[in-house]
Design a protein that fits this description.
By secondary structure, the chain is α/β, with parallel strands linked by helices. It has 14 helices and 15 strands. It folds into two domains: 201 residues, Glycogen Phosphorylase B (Rossmann fold), CATH 3.40.50.2000; 158 residues, Rossmann fold (3-Layer(aba) Sandwich). Helix 2 runs parallel beside helix 3 and helix 6 crosses helix 11. The longest helix is centred in the first third of the chain and has 18 residues. The mean pLDDT is 92.
Length: 379
């Protein structure tokens, strides 16, 4: 059995690698098709790896830009050229780019392969501009994805919220659907040990610092906590809005320690072991049910300060693994944070247990075994 896995984003490659290695363990010959452009660093890299093809990709400098859209279209076109005459039994394509969806459908029809579309993010739904979805070019962008979902033998989503937003339950043309949460790329060794500070609350902010995080709500809630108990925010990450974020914290009198982008899992864990909470807050226009940073927090047993709707909001409400924050009453959110801070060790143990059930690599492989392997029997 021959499988091809396609993504144009370096951010999604860890997921693609885990899917491919699972398939190899079950007898598949796997080929990965990636970009030679690093999305994080915004530069091209000379890359070589066994069973991997790296497509010459048009570079871009900004995430929200016309050059990025051109780059995605060009990548999709080159994927078709590369694979159109190649024998394949299972085609696994990570979306976005939305332009890969019609290409995947064409390749399925040409080769007869089983097709899995794995939705990792929703664009244009996550654009931080209200009302923009009514514009014709934006509607065309969305239709690039939506009009071809029914051609997939399986639509995988990284969270349950995406299925709700795309009305999959009411779409009889979608053959099969499943949710597969992200596992971490690499887990730190050993069990994390919480190192509490009696004099102040340590908070972690992990990940990209960009236009979609809700800096105003973050600083407002932390300001109210800071008035009752001193707060120190450990900022782990980088992005175009880093200086703005640090200035907003400083302007509220909130102490911050900037660690930069930390990719070493052990170093990251050592920082998060100090933290009573992890900040997981985005602007309300963003359509995402689960963030990668929240999985990092779960892995280290860190309770959430959250405003992400969908999967994460429900987990916090149902399992008591943090505090869901309301824009209407940030003062009450701050009170809840202080209440939960009194029983952090209990929460950390609960979160680690939840991580093993839903987000560990074993949980991912159980989904793949249940959903992907039956497709192999259909090819």
């Amino acid at each position: 059995m021959r499988a091809v896995i396609v993504t144009n984003s370096s951010n999604y490659e860890p997921r693609a690698e885990k899917v491919g290695h699972f398939l190899q363990k079950h007898g598949f010959q796997v080929r990965w098709v990636y970009s030679d452009f690093d999305h994080r660093e915004k530069r091209k890299k000379a890359r070589e790896a066994e069973d991997h093809s790296f497509i010459d990709t048009v570079p871009y400098k900004k995430n929200m830009s016309v050059p990025r859209m051109v780059s995605q279209y060009d990548f999709s076109r080159k994927v078709y050229r590369l694979l159109k005459d190649q024998p394949v039994d299972l085609l696994y394509v990570l979306i976005p780019a939305n332009s890969l969806t019609p290409v995947a459908a064409r390749l399925k029809r040409r080769s007869g392969a089983s097709l899995v579309l794995d939705l990792i993010d929703l664009w244009p739904e996550s654009l931080p501009i209200k009302g923009i979805e009514q514009f014709w070019p934006i509607q065309c962008w969305r239709k690039l994805r939506d009009d071809y979902l029914a051609e997939a033998d399986l639509v995988m989503t990284e969270c349950r919220l995406y299925q709700e937003l795309l009305h999959m339950d009411s779409n009889p043309d979608i053959k099969r659907k499943a949710v597969m949460y992200w596992p971490k790329e690499r887990e730190p060794e050993g069990k994390p040990v919480f190192s509490p500070d009696r004099d102040r609350l340590h908070m972690g902010y992990l990940g990209s610092i960009n236009h979609i995080i809700d800096m105003d709500l973050i600083t407002e809630v932390l300001d109210k906590v800071n008035q009752k108990k001193p707060v120190l925010v450990h900022v782990i990450g980088d992005g175009e809005s880093r200086e703005i974020f640090l200035e907003k914290l400083k302007g509220r009198g909130i102490q911050a320690e900037y660690h930069g982008a930390v990719y070493d899992e052990e170093a990251k864990r050592q920082i998060l072991e100090k933290c009573s909470f992890g900040i997981n807050m985005m602007k309300e226009t963003v359509r995402v049910g689960l963030t990668m940073k929240s999985i990092d927090y779960f892995c280290c047993g860190v309770p959430l300060i959250n405003n992400i709707r969908g999967d994460t909001w429900d987990l916090v409400e149902q399992s008591g693994i943090g505090v869901n924050c309301s824009r209407k009453d940030p003062g009450r959110s701050a009170e809840k944070i202080l209440e939960v801070s009194e029983k952090i060790q209990e929460k950390r143990e609960l979160i680690r247990e939840l991580y093993g059930q839903l987000f560990a690599e074993k949980a991912m492989e159980e989904v793949l075994e249940r959903e992907i392997l039956p497709l192999a029997g259909d090819t």
